[in-house]
Amino acid sequence: MDVKNMREYMGWLYYQYLLITGIYVLEPWEKSIFNTVLFTMVAMVVYTSYVFVPVHVRLALEFFSGLCGEQPETLSATSYMMVRDGTLNECSCIA
């Protein structure tokens, strides 16, 4: 696809965006405010999905693996404790 066809196609997509959203009837300053708000909302949804979806997927997998009969890993009597300087210290815990 050459540059001219790509430019025409992008122009056609933008025209479709204007028609579908109905912002072709707005004034230029209103269009810019609408586009800014829309872009901000889409950016927040993408960022939130990137940050929080993996955590929820992991928790859901742990939950459903527990329902399917897999036994959770047992804690050993020796575990590790994080101290202020970031090092791991071994501590003996009686359960």
Molecular structure report:
The protein has 95 residues and is mainly alpha-helical. The chain is built from 2 helices and 2 strands. It has a two-stranded antiparallel sheet. Strand 1 and strand 2 form a beta hairpin. Its main location: endoplasmic reticulum. It comes from Clarias magur (Asian catfish). It is a multi-pass membrane protein.
Features:
sphingolipid metabolism, 2 helices, 95 residues, transmembrane helix, 2 strands, endoplasmic reticulum, membrane
Distance, first to last CA = 68 Å
Strand-and-helix sequence, N→C? HHEE
> Can you summarize the main beta sheet?
2 strands, antiparallel
Q: Tell me the strand order in the biggest sheet.
A: 1-2
Tally of contiguous helical segments: 2
Query: How many strands appear in the DSSP assignment?
Result: 2
Q: Helicity, in percent?
A: 55-70%
Beta fraction of the residues? Answer: 5-15%
Let me know the average pLDDT: 80
Uncertain segments of ≥5 residues (pLDDT<50)?
A: none
Structural class, judged by helices and strands? mainly alpha
Q: What is the alpha-carbon Rg in Å?
A: 26 Å
Oligomeric state of the chains?
Answer: single chain
